[in-house]
Structure formats: structure tokens, C-alpha cells
Specification:
- This protein has 252 residues and is of the alpha/beta class.
- It folds into 2 domains: 186 residues, tm_1862 like domain (pyruvate-formate lyase- activating enzyme, Alpha-Beta Horseshoe), CATH 3.80.30; 60 residues, Beta Barrel (OB fold (Dihydrolipoamide Acetyltransferase, E2P)), CATH 2.40.50.
- The chain is built from 6 helices and 10 strands, in the order E-E-H-H-E-H-H-E-H-E-H-E-E-E-E-E.
Amino acid sequence: DTSAYGVDIRYRTGFWRGRPLRTRMTELARALGELAGEHGAWVRLHYVYPYPHVDEVIPLMAERRLLPYLDVPFQHASQRILKLMKRPANAQDNLDRIRAWRSMCPDLTIRSTFIVGFPGETEGEFDELLTFIEQADLDRVGCFAYSPVDGAAANELPDHVPEAIKEERRERFMSTQAQISARRLRMTIGRTLDVLVDSITDGRAIARSAADAPEIDGVVTIEDGGSLAAGSFARVKITGSTQHDLTGRLVA
């Protein structure tokens, strides 16, 4: 949990570059942003639970000290299921926070992961989850059907959901999210984005924008990018989109 950085040592103050620096996520993010600016690097935050102090890093994203990208594992929307998962969250609070984040940083990309078929999950609670993702309008989402983990307290909970129902719910969830993701990607057509080139294939460059984490998100295919080098940055005008990926051409 990145947002819990420093809790184990009670946010002890250390020193970096000759100045005091608290062992806390906001201070860490600010320092990483400083380093990134010096070296032309990207800093992306993953696995950040939605605690109130996460609000403090959004202005750093708006100022482009960090990539405007936040990976927040919301996990579910039902208050009862979240309590069973031992997650200190509330669906309405999360929706309010998402709106506030996007108000502070309109270009923010939000990725999340969810679990369906948690022991005891009812059809009504699953419907709550579908309503949540429709209202949250998230950019990138992963979904997993619950499976037992050795030693987990959830293994002892009653009313385990049958495998067939878990898989059916996962498919319904991903079908709903696919429509949301596709619509949000269509909104980028016509925009010019800075991208990082990962590889060259068949005369085209395979790259990622600030909205694309490696291996788990989509890619930007640059149709005329065969002359680019892996590891370089380029400016691309987006010309097309799918459910997960973008296509574009170099900006002269």
C-alpha cells in the first residue's frame, strides 16, 4: 500500500540532499518528482489506497511533477462486502473523491481493480458494484473472481459463491467496463500526446502515453514511427482507438 508509506516508522524525518524529509507518501512523491524533472523521467503511482492524504499528491500531478495517473484498488462498492474484506472505504466517499481529483487534475487517469464473487456477495451487491463503475467512469479496470488464499480469514466465511456465478459476474463486469474504457479512449482522438517508445515492430513504434502503465494497460501504435528508437519520447496526434489501445501519427 503506497499510501501507507512511512506508517511502520511513524513518519520518521530523515535527510535527503542535505534537507529534512519526512518518511511520508506526499513528501516522497514530491522528491521523486524533483528527480524526474532533472532526468526527464516519468514517475507513476501504483496501489494507492484512497485515504484522505492521497488528495495531497493530485496537485503534483496537475503540475506534471508526477504522471497524472493513479492506481487505486477500490475492490468493491458494497459497504458490507468492503467490511468483510477489511477495507476502510465507502462507495459514496470514493465517488466524491474521484470527482474532486478530476476537478484538480482533469487529465487524471484512474486505474482500479475489483473482486467479484467474494464469499456472501449477493446479486444485489454485485449490482451495486456495476452501478459504482458506471458512476465512477474509470479509465482502466481489472477484475478478478474471488479465489481462496491459504491462511486468509475469508476462507472461513459462509456462503461461498459458486464458480459458475463468479465467472458470469466477472464477464458482466468486464463487458460493462469495456464500454466505459472504449468511450473514454475515443475522447482522445484528435489530441496530441507525449508518448514513450517501447519497441519498433514492422515499421511501427509501440509506445505508451502517461495513461498507460507497462504490461497492464494499453499501448499507442505510431503508424509512421519506424525511425524512432526504443526509450525515446515522441509527440503523437491520436487518430484512432479501440477498447484498450490508441493509434496515432507523429507530429511534425
